[in-house]
Write a structure and sequence with these properties.
With about 325 residues, the protein is of the alpha/beta class. The protein has 3 domains: about 5-95, Diphthamide synthesis DPH1/DPH2 domain 1 (Rossmann fold, 3-Layer(aba) Sandwich); about 105-210, Rossmann fold (3-Layer(aba) Sandwich), CATH 3.40.50; about 220-330, Diphthamide synthesis DPH1/DPH2 domain 3 (Rossmann fold), CATH 3.40.50. It is built from 13 helices and 15 strands. It has a 5-stranded mixed beta sheet with strand order 8-7-9-10-11, with helices on both faces. A 4-stranded parallel beta sheet has the order 3-2-4-5, covered by helices on one side. Strands 13-12-14-15 form a 4-stranded parallel beta sheet. β12, α9 and β13 (about 265-270) form a beta-alpha-beta unit. The two termini are about 35 Å apart.
Length: about 325
């Protein structure tokens, strides 16, 4: 808990101001080990009862209002992410800013970007409080750094999340390369969103500097193979996500398009996709998932059947061309 700022004094103040009697705490998967100590602190400093959500929590998109209501919570405290969509329920977001000094790692990255002048800089929420300092460091070394404005679901300028890269895409014509502060998840997402620019990940968790270009090429081949397998499939399932923040695409548009080219289509709802759930639909040969697009992209190896995103399904039904998908990005 020393590395990340849980802002517990702010949380305590919010609980008191809201006069919350019962609080649901949401933690990312890697932070749940801190839950018991945080519960002890909050319950000792306030009159509230804390309940820890044991469900998976993958992002600011993953706010479980039904869970909060079922335990009669007055407030949700969501650790590790920023606001994503408007939710009609009291929520306090605690971004968990990382206290690690990134300048030594930034210095290490200079050799990898020496041939680039105009660079787009984006970051996961954990480092957003340092992004201006890092921008200044690069500019002092002669680089022209552009931090994109907040667009789409992004909460802050330069903030990048798993499914939202509209900001960096909006400035890609004016940059030579992209730098991402975060982890492999954020780096790969940027590489698949901005397919025509070099993407450098400053991996703040593994203390490494990684070019994402080779991984991007591998994933693009996988995406092409998945699309071709869907084209050959006769029975297709369209998975509609039940989480309010994980609903991407129009199921009826895809269903009609697939039926028009001779596919038998079923619409299936899921709160969370898993290989076990997919196995149950043994007669369906492939899936279009309209929940989080990163499931189809990142979990390629977990499933024995092809799974594609809404954008990729548009290629299958002839509404988008493969070359246009490459130009516009997979996210």
């Amino acid at each position: 808990m020393n590395r990340f700022n849980f802002e517990l004094e702010k949380v305590i103040q919010e609980i008191k101001q809201k006069q919350a009697k019962k609080v649901l705490l949401q933690f990312p998967e890697g932070i749940k080990l801190e839950a018991s100590s945080i519960v002890k602190k909050l319950e000792s400093e306030t009159a509230c009862e804390c309940i820890v959500s044991g469900e998976t929590c993958w992002g600011g998109c993953d706010i479980d209002i039904n869970e909060a209501k079922s335990v009669k919570a007055d407030l949700i405290v969501h650790f590790g992410h920023a606001p994503f969509i408007k939710i009609n329920f009291p929520i306090l977001y605690v971004p968990l800013y990382d206290s690690k000094n990134l300048i030594p790692l930034i210095k290490k990255s200079l050799k990898s970007i020496e041939k680039f002048k105009n660079i787009g800089l984006i970051s996961s929420i954990q480092h957003m409080d340092q992004i201006e300092k890092i921008k200044q460091y690069f500019e002092d070394k002669g680089k022209i750094i552009k931090i994109p404005s907040a667009k789409g679901y992004a909460h802050l300028s330069g903030h990048v999340i798993g499914c939202e890269f509209s900001g960096i895409k909006s400035i890609k014509k004016n940059i030579d390369a992209v730098i991402v502060l975060g982890n492999q998840f954020h780096g790969l997402g940027a590489a698949l969103a901005v397919t025509d620019k070099p993407v450098l990940l400053i991996d703040t968790y593994n203390n490494d500097i990684i070019s994402m270009d080779e991984q991007r090429n591998k994933f693009i081949k996988q995406r092409g193979a998945s699309i071709e397998r869907i084209k050959r499939s006769k029975k297709i399932g369209i998975i509609v996500g039940l989480k309010p923040g994980q609903q991407f695409g129009l199921p009826n548009v895809i269903k009609k398009g697939l039926e028009k080219i001779g596919k038998q289509v079923s619409i299936i709802t899921m709160r969370e996709m898993t290989p076990e759930k997919i196995y149950n639909f043994y007669d369906i040969e492939g899936f279009v998932e309209l929940a989080c697009p990163r499931i189809a992209l990142d979990d390629y190896g977990k499933y024995n059947k092809p799974i594609i995103t809404f954008k990729e399904a548009m290629v299958v039904i002839g509404k988008k061309k493969w070359v246009n998908l490459l130009d516009s990005g997979f996210l």
